[in-house]
Design brief:
Chain lengths: 103, 162
């Protein structure tokens, strides 16, 4: 039963990675980019748990997943704060506006 | 078995809807649903502690942050077209998934007996560096948000002349 569950989780990981990478490549909305990043990281967390179940060391997988959750939440908080500032300064959420920082 | 497939399919549908819908508020809600279903799948896989944390942080805290940011910035689902063409993005995604699956899938049949150990013990005794890193990350995040969201109260040029 563990094997089938790990296989299903792995296929879900591949699907989540595909959705996340495609959206990161396509979208130019800053908040949508954060959403795509969240989806990608959910796949990573699921992969860590599945690897823990598969290798028989679930506690290590859970510990690593906790680190990923903390880092992902911090990234989301900072990216959303950045999106608020970009909207305040430029009037839109297009990531191309960030290139004006070079001037 | 059927319930696992149903949950996995629901995760993919929720994630796809989260990136497809144009209203950002709906996008945040679909993402919360995806987080809750991922937490449910984690619980079924035996990772009870991480399921609870993912449910409270991923589906709770992050959703509140998204709703707050969307309320402040407003609904702007439609933006300019993407920089790279769609067909190139699809080719890149298929290539990435192929290589990811090529790396992951052969490792699955070598399943071993589950070693029942407490993640709490693992975190506090074996992974102390991870714990320190998490504390540093949280402080960096708080400082970063304070720095980004702080209002600049610079005196205007007229006030300077006075």
């Amino acid at each position: 039963m563990n094997l089938s569950l790990v296989l299903i989780a792995t296929i879900t990981v591949l699907g989540l990675a595909g959705i996340g990478i495609y959206t990161l490549l396509i979208t130019r909305n800053l908040i949508k980019v954060v959403v795509a990043l969240q989806i990608l990281v959910k796949g990573v967390m699921l992969a860590l748990i599945a690897a823990g179940v598969n290798s028989g060391n679930l506690s290590l997988g859970q510990t690593l997943a906790l680190s990923v959750i903390v880092a992902d939440t911090i990234v989301a908080v900072i990216a959303l704060a950045l999106a608020v500032q970009v909207r305040r300064h430029f009037g839109s959420q297009d990531i191309k506006n960030l290139t004006t920082l070079r001037r | 078995m059927f319930i696992y497939i149903l949950i996995a399919f629901s995760i993919l549908v929720c994630s796809f809807q989260a990136v497809r819908v144009t209203r950002m508020l709906y996008s945040a809600l679909w993402l919360a649903g995806s987080s809750a279903l991922v937490a449910l799948l984690m619980y079924l896989m035996g990772a009870h502690e991480m399921a609870v944390i993912e449910l409270s942080v991923g589906a709770g805290l992050v959703t509140v942050l998204f709703v707050f940011a969307i309320n402040v910035t407003g609904e702007q689902g439609h933006t300019a077209p993407s920089i790279i063409p769609h067909w190139l993005a699809i080719v890149l995604v298929i290539t990435a998934i192929f290589f990811l699956g090529w790396l992951i899938l052969p490792a699955i049949p070598f399943a071993t007996q589950l070693n029942i150990a407490s993640p709490t013990q693992n975190l506090w005794q074996d992974r102390t560096l991870d714990l320190l890193l998490q504390i540093v990350l949280i402080f960096c995040g708080i400082l970063g948000v304070l720095g980004i969201l702080s209002q600049e109260n610079r005196p205007s040029s007229q006030e300077k002349h006075k």
